[in-house]
Amino acid sequence: MKILRQPTPVTIKIDQKQLENVKCFKYFVSLLTDDGRCTSEIKSRIAMAKAAFSKKKNLFTSKLDLNLRKKLVKCYIWSIALYGAETWTLRAVDQKHLESFEMWCWRRMEKISWTDYVRNEEVLIRVSEQRNILHEIRKRKANWIGHVLRRNCLLKEAIEGKIDGRIEVTRRRGRRRKKMLDDLGDRRGYCHLKEKALDRIKWRNSFGRDCGPVVLTDY
User: Fold this and answer.
1) What span, in angstroms and rounded, lies between the C-alpha atoms of 103 and 100?
2) What is the mean pLDDT of the chain?
3) 28, 48, 94, 158: which has the fewest Cβ within 10 Å?
4) What is the pLDDT, as a whole number, of residue 176?
5) Are residues 103 and 110 in contact, defined by beta-carbon separation less than 8 angstroms?
């Protein structure tokens, strides 16, 4: 697989046998695509989470205490949907998919059909919840990135672009692609982000629940 904006076939031979060029493949449990985006992976995780919800539907829609059922959904269903979310680069369309999935969970849990014409705001009031899934992803990503930035490892070198090799720079139309660290939203740049990560307490306080709303931006 060659990961590029406009992927082109690459020729690699092993023992005179040419390797197959693919557009996507599973690496462990993550779905990688040749455009380098996370949309397919996010859709795949959401589909698996919905299937898991359907298998335990009787439990999630039972007469158990509401708070207990919400904890079960977040523990069992969200864990499936957000597996590996620390490495996702979220575009506006991806964030909308995730927020739609979040509302799908609460609607199914309360047996609210789309034909009932109940607004999302009303659903959130009924389950005593706020929009949380994007904040949860941002918090997980901050915890993981902070751990990486405090270490000297290959992944840190890859993030900083210190891996040997030649990069072909060409001028393209449109906005630049969104990067993984852009979700953390530090306008003072990577150096300030790295400096802040060295202090665990300050880092965790910076990316707590009250860190502000996630802004939908498309790249």
Assistant:
1) 5
2) 80
3) 28
4) 59
5) no
Q: What percent of the chain has pLDDT over 70?
A: 76
What is the residue type of 29?
V
Phi and psi of 142, rounded to 5°? -65, -40
Backbone angles phi, psi at 17, to 5 degrees: -110, 125
On the question of pLDDT at 41 being above 70, the answer is yes
Q: How many helices (H) and strands (E) does the chain have?
A: 10, 4
Instruction: State both tokens at 144.
Output: 């993981």
Torsion angle of C-alpha atoms 168, 9, 20, 88, degrees rounded to 10: 50
Residue type for 161, please? G
pTM: 0.76
- State residue 13 phi and psi, 5-degree precision: -115, 140
For 87-96, letters b (16+ CB in 10 Å) and e give ebbbbeebbe
The residue written with tokens 């009303």 in the block is: 122
Positive or negative torsion for Cα 56, 127, 99, 187: negative
- Per-residue pLDDT tens for 102-158? 999 999 999 999 888 999 999 999 999 999 999 899 888 888 888 787 878 777 777
Residue 62: DSSP 8-state: S
**Using CA atoms, how far apart are residues 15 and 201, in angstroms rounded to an integer?**
53
Query: What is the spatial distance between Cα 207 and Cα 139, in angstroms, rounded to a whole number?
Result: 6
